[in-house]
């Protein structure tokens, strides 16, 4: 990834979906899903305390503890610290249908970062991770520009990034990442922090490529790697433009549905499944190291693996550009 020595498979596993955001799946199904990914050759597993309110880390760790540690790459995230709920009996957390019952707070200070890191290792049951990712330091999660500035102050002046840099320089972790749900924050991160890679969710997909304006050229010039999350735009590029299709975790608007229909039609003309084009498209950018779709069943894993292996004719990319469905400057074969 980027300038680091952390090597990853082009297809990784995003741990958000097995945090039970929309449905509660049995533990045996979560275990079978992770096993299917590993057995198919996936060797990068990304998780976070936030996913399932710590459930994803428990599940990912439970499976990976059965594997040889040197054979896989494991990443998790910092920025939230968890504690017992003030009122366990009435706990509600609507973001994760199957989320575990713990309170959380954002904390990007040195103490918060190190506390989050240690808690994650304990939940995973694995005493090392390959990278730590600064999670959700953006306008949505911090509520405003003022909130973003306050979080950056914790990260920089409060010693959070210094703690991460010390973990990296000591060899305890191999890389430092930062999650990106929007364009516009990568230049700010790179001004203040020596980031190795960004986990980009939404700004660079088959549906939208705003990251080509500034963020991706800056990363490429500086040798900063990119991991693509939400490669299916949170749903619509996996399901197709169906009546209940999701985009950015919300029902897709008419303009998105129209564009998705156009992309799907081009894919159909070339005999290419829409998910195959969606998974493979970002990997043609030289800064992108891997894509990490989620899955909550072995069948979904198998579908992702098949989509990655599907042969895509060059004419498909050319037609998407000629129809104005992807940007002309988007790297393609």
Q: Secondary-structure map with pairings?
A:
Layout: E1 13-14, H1 27-39, E2 44-46, H2 55-64, E3 73-78, E4 80-83, E5 103-106, H3 110-124, E6 131-134, H4 139-142, H5 145-156, H6 160-169, E7 175-180, H7 186-192, E8 197-201, H8 215-222, E9 225-229, H9 236-239, E10 246-247, E11 250-251, H10 254-269, H11 274-280, E12 288-291, H12 298-309, H13 314-322
Parallel strand pairs: 1-2, 2-3, 3-6, 6-7, 7-8, 8-9, 9-12
Antiparallel strand pairs: 4-5, 10-11
Structure description:
It is a single chain. The model has no long low-confidence stretch (mean pLDDT 97). The protein has a domain of 226 residues: NADP-dependent oxidoreductase domain (TIM Barrel). It contains 13 helices and twelve strands. 38% of the residues lie in helices and 14% in strands. Strand 7, helix 7 and strand 8 form a beta-alpha-beta unit. The strands form three sheets. An eight-stranded parallel beta sheet has the order 1-2-3-6-7-8-9-12. A two-stranded antiparallel ribbon has the order 4-5. Helix 1 packs across helix 2. The chain is globular, with a radius of gyration of 19 Å. It has 333 residues and is of the alpha/beta class. The longest helix is centred in the last third of the chain and has 16 residues.
Based on secondary structure, the structural category is alpha/beta
Main sheet: strand order: 1-2-3-6-7-8-9-12
Portion of residues in beta strands equals 5-15%
| Shape designation | globular
Count of helices? 13
CATH homologous superfamily (4th level) name of one domain: NADP-dependent oxidoreductase domain
Give helix % range.
25-40%
Order of helices and strands: EHEHEEEHEHHHEHEHEHEEHHEHH
CATH topology of one domain: TIM Barrel
- The low-confidence parts are none
**Computed Rg:** 19 Å
Main sheet attributes: strand count, strand direction, barrel closure? 8 strands, parallel
Mean pLDDT value: 97
Number of strands: 12
What kind of oligomer do you see? Answer: single chain
CATH-scheme architecture of one domain: Alpha-Beta Barrel
């Amino acid at each position: 990834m980027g300038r680091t020595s952390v090597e990853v498979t082009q297809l990784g596993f995003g741990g958000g979906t097995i945090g039970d955001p929309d449905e509660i799946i049995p533990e045996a199904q979560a275990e079978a899903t992770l096993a299917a990914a590993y057995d198919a050759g996936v060797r990068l597993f990304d998780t976070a305390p936030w996913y399932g309110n710590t459930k994803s880390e428990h599940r990912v760790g439970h499976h990976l503890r059965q594997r040889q540690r040197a054979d896989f790459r494991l990443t998790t995230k910092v920025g939230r610290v968890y504690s017992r709920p003030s009122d366990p009996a009435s706990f509600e957390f609507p973001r994760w249908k199957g989320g575990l019952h713990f309170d959380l707070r954002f904390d990007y200070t040195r103490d918060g970062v190190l506390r989050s890191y240690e808690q994650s290792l304990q939940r995973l049951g694995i005493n090392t991770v390959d990278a730590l990712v600064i999670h959700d330091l953006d306008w949505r999660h911090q509520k405003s520009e003022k909130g973003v500035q306050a979080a950056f102050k914790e990260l920089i002046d409060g010693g959070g990034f210094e703690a991460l840099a010390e973990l990296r320089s000591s060899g305890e972790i191999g890389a430092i990442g930062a999650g990106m749900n929007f364009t516009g924050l990568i230049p700010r991160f790179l001004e203040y922090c020596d980031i190795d890679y960004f986990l980009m969710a939404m700004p660079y997909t088959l549906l939208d490529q705003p990251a080509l304006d500034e963020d991706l050229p800056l990363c490429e010039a500086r040798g900063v790697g990119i991991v693509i999350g939400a490669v299916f735009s949170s749903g619509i590029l996996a399901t197709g433009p169906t009546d209940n299709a999701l985009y950015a975790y919300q029902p897709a608007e008419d303009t998105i549905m129209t564009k998705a229909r156009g992309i799907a039609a081009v894919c159909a003309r070339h005999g290419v499944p829409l998910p195959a084009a969606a998974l493979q498209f970002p990997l043609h950018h030289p800064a992108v190291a891997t894509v990490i779709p989620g899955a909550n069943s072995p069948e979904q894993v198998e579908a992702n693996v098949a989509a990655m292996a599907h042969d895509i004719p060059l004419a498909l990319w050319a037609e998407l550009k000629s129809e104005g469905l992807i940007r002309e400057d988007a790297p393609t074969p």
